Amino acid sequence: MATLESSAPHQAEAQHDLAAINQALDESLRLGPGCPDRLGQAMRYVVLGPGKRLRPRLVLMACRACGGDPAAALPAACAVEMIHAYSLAHDDLPAMDDDDLRRGRPTCHIEFDEATAILVGDALQARAFELLATRVAPEHAARCCGELAQAAGAEKLVGGQAADLCGAFDGATVDDLRAIHARKTGAMFIVSLRLGGILAGASEEQLTRLTDYARSLGLAFQVTDDLLDVSGDQQSVGKRLGKDADRGKLTYPELMGVDQSRQLVVELIDAAAAAVQPLGDAAAPLVELARKLQNRDR
Ligand code: GRG
Asked: How many angstroms is it from 87 CA to the middle of ligand 1?
């Protein structure tokens, strides 16, 4: 079974990053006395649950790839994970995907209640921007806030979710699906890489390379997400397609078939690797992570 954990030679670095991210998330969610206990507990439940921390890891890796100090990027790493975690908690709500399980545990509105799950999202968004505004180097703070706001806003994450929920997919093409996922999934990958680069003082050319990497990686991630749900036998394909069809959702395997979807992942991972190759040895962990994503099982 393949996970996204790194193997040698970058395993120690990956484990160090993961531990640093988890500790920073924990510390940044110790909220003051004004925060009601139940709200604080729910925020911690949503963020500190057993996620892969892929986006915050990408922040640190991009920072290192551009010669920066990853410790200085930790607040940005926490900020993107908080936005991601809020989006999952809201996506799980009855008004959206109506899911009972997330990260192997009851979703926030099941464990707590719907109003709390909504407020958790509101509070996590605010906390994410507070971290960026107050904890990263002042000369980069405004740009980081602006880029994260763009990625999380109506033209990207929220817009992609809204388009997905519309479900007017009769006659939709792979390009239509890509356009939704570029907003719903891709934008948060792109901003993760860009924040890491910005905090390392990366050049515009380096930022463009990180952006190209993230665009391909984000799409590959989405296609593998669809493929994970259909891996196994045709019966499970039918189940997943039936479920998504009920919800008016489209998947890559449904539109292109399983084999072509797998081929698309291979091409996207190659494109991601090629985008950061010119950054040299420092970008090797990004290439390694992309290759692992190709074979991920969760
Ligand atoms: C509610 C504004 C709003 C947006 C929701 C991200 C999203 C938009 C919905 C999630 C639906 C989904 C399952 C998309 C597939 C790709 C994806 C984002 C999977 C979850 O990300 P992981 O696998 O999760 O990185 P962990 O739990 O590991 O952090």
From this structure: 7
Residue keyed to tokens 């989006």: 87
Query: Which among 169, 283, 162, 272 has a CA at the least distance from the CA of 224?
Result: 272
Mutation probe of ligand 1 site: the residue of 184, 188, 265, 293 with most atoms within 8 A of C-beta: 184
Q: Whose CA is nearest to atom 10 of ligand 1?
A: 88
Those residues of the chain that have pLDDT short of 50 are 1-2, 232-243, 245
ipTM: 0.95
pLDDT of residue 174: 87
Residue to substitute in 47, 185, 222, 252 for testing ligand 1 pocket (most ligand atoms within 8 angstroms of CB): 185
Residue 73: DSSP 8-state: G
pLDDT at 167: 72
Q: Is 0.90 topped by the overall pTM?
A: yes
Q: Which residues pair with 49 in a beta bridge?
A: none
112 Cβ contact list (under 8 Å, min separation 6): 38, 41, 42, 45, 120
Which own/partner contact pairs does 95-104 have at CB distance under 8 Å and 24+ positions apart? 96/161, 96/165, 97/247, 102/49, 103/49, 103/50, 103/51, 104/50
Index of the ligand 1 atom closest to the CA of residue 97: 11
Q: Decide whether any atom of ligand 1 lies within 6 Å of the 90 Cβ.
A: yes
Q: How much is the pLDDT for 248?
A: 55
- Domain 11-294 architecture: Orthogonal Bundle (1.10)
Instruction: Please report where in the chains the tokens 């940044």 appear, as a residue.
Output: 28
- pLDDT at residue 239 in the model: 39
Give the start-to-end residue ranges of the domains of the chain.
11-294
- Report the number of secondary-structure helices (H) and strands (E) in the chain: 15, 2
Q: Where are the beta strands (DSSP E) in the chain?
A: 101-102, 105-106
Closest atom of ligand 1 relative to the 81 alpha carbon: 29
